[in-house]
Amino acid sequence: MDYIILDIEFNGRKFASDLPMEVIEIGAVRLNEQLQLIDQFSALIKPVYFAKLNKFIQKKTGILQTEIDEAERFPKVINDFQQWLAQSESCLFITWGGEDMKRIVLDTRMHRLDDQYFLHADYFDLLKGFIKHKGLVNDISVENALVELQIEADGHAHRALDDARMTSEIFKATFEHLDFSQIQQYKDSFTNAKERRLIKNAIRLLLSQKLEPTWPMFEEHFLQKTIKTDNPKKTAEIKQYFLEQMTKQKNDKTTD
Question: Which domains does the chain have, with CATH numbers?
Answer without folding.
Answer: 2-182 (3.30.420.10), 193-255 (no CATH)
